[in-house]
Specification:
By secondary structure, the protein is α+β, with helices and mostly antiparallel strands. The chain folds into two domains: 93 residues, 2-Layer Sandwich (Alpha-Beta Plaits), CATH 3.30.70.1280; 85 residues, Alpha-Beta Plaits, CATH 3.30.70. 38% of the residues lie in helices and 22% in strands. β2 and β3 form a beta hairpin.
């Protein structure tokens, strides 16, 4: 269907922070889709139960973020941060990974579970936050900050890593997705554009 018959529409990916994690902040994805369609978003699709939503809209990121956050608060009674990326931005995140395939394979060989993640932020972290994260990193795991995204590579387990526990030191909310989810969202965004 392309870009919703209006060439000015963009495909966006909304990443909701803290949805359906550990039984907290549960939202059924079908209800979320309906709520977002009511505020004028089109081609709304969700992926898994952790708050990944794709949609088309001609609006800008800032106004969309506010509308989505307000709608979720009004309909579901949950206050959360929504991180938005365009389909093109998601493709760049995946295509421009700063870790080499060899480094990723090396980490995957020793990690329990997934080793490769991306933390997506609504805004670039301030220099003070970057310094705090650097001081808190135990050196075992690696990260690279590229604008509003933090590439993460874990060598043992994301659950036990000091790096994941210290992401809040950046001073900007972050929502984290594993590499497989990132690739699936890029694939779904491409399908929406076709």
């Amino acid at each position: 269907m392309g870009v919703d018959s209006e060439s000015r529409n963009k495909i966006y990916v909304a990443l909701l922070r803290g949805i359906n994690v550990g039984g907290k902040n549960k939202i059924k994805m079908a209800e979320l889709r309906e709520a977002l369609e009511r505020i004028g978003l089109s081609q709304v699709k969700t992926y898994i139960q952790s708050g990944n939503v794709l949609f088309a809209s001609p609006d800008d990121e800032s106004s969309l973020r506010k509308r989505i956050e307000q709608e979720i608060a009004a309909v579901f009674g949950i206050t959360l941060t929504v991180v938005l990326r365009t389909a093109e931005e998601m493709e760049h995140i995946v295509d421009d990974c700063p870790f080499s395939p060899e480094l990723i394979a090396e980490a995957a060989a020793t990690c329990v579970g997934e080793s490769h993640y991306v933390a997506l932020l609504p805004d670039a972290p301030p220099p003070s936050g970057i310094e705090k994260l650097a001081a808190a990193n135990n050196g075992d795991d690696e990260y690279r900050i590229v604008g509003r995204d933090v590439y993460l590579l874990f060598r043992h387990s994301v659950r036990d890593a000091k790096l994941s526990a210290n992401l809040q030191k950046l001073g900007v909310p972050a929502t984290v997705r594993n590499w497989n989810t990132m690739n699936k969202l890029v694939e779904m965004a491409k399908e929406l554009r076709e």
